[in-house]
Structures are given as C-alpha cells and as structure tokens.
Amino acid sequence: MKYFKVIKDNFLWEQGAILKQNDEKRGYVPIDQIYYKIEDCNEYISSEVVEKSPEYFLRVYPVNLLTKIVYKIKQEAMELIKKNEVGDN
After folding, report:
1. Helix, strand, coil % (nearest 5) of the chain?
2. Percent of the residues in the chain that have a pLDDT greater than 90, as a whole number
C-alpha cells in the first residue's frame, strides 16, 4: 500500500494529511477524517493525480515505532528503521 503526505492545501484536504490508497485502489483518501475541509466528505483523488503531483503530495512510508506510527520520506524512514534495529540482535 502506498502513502502520501499532503504538503500543500488543496480543495479536499489540509496540509499534513496522510493519504492511503482506498480499498478499490482507484484513488487516495486520508487515514484520518480530521483533515477533510468538508465535514462528512468521502471523496478521493485519483491515484494518477496524487502520484504525479509532487507540488502537493510527497510519498511517505509508515514506520512503526513502539508507541506510534510515523510517516516519513523513504530516506528518513530507512534511517529510523536502522536506528530501531540496533538492539534487536
């Protein structure tokens, strides 16, 4: 599953929203309804638009830490994973 972070407000979501592919994989929806600009909205933006609009959306990866999941760009996610693997041997 792909995730994207909204880095610039758009007509549906506030900056900071984390988006994931919807169940039908036709587009992206936020993981939390709080970022919708329109209350009780169930709209999505197509995968093609999100994946090809780097001025609005940044690809991020979930990193499951002990107390929470954070979403980071690939390089930061890999660094966090490596840092948290140190004591796993």
Report:
1. 25, 30, 45
2. 47
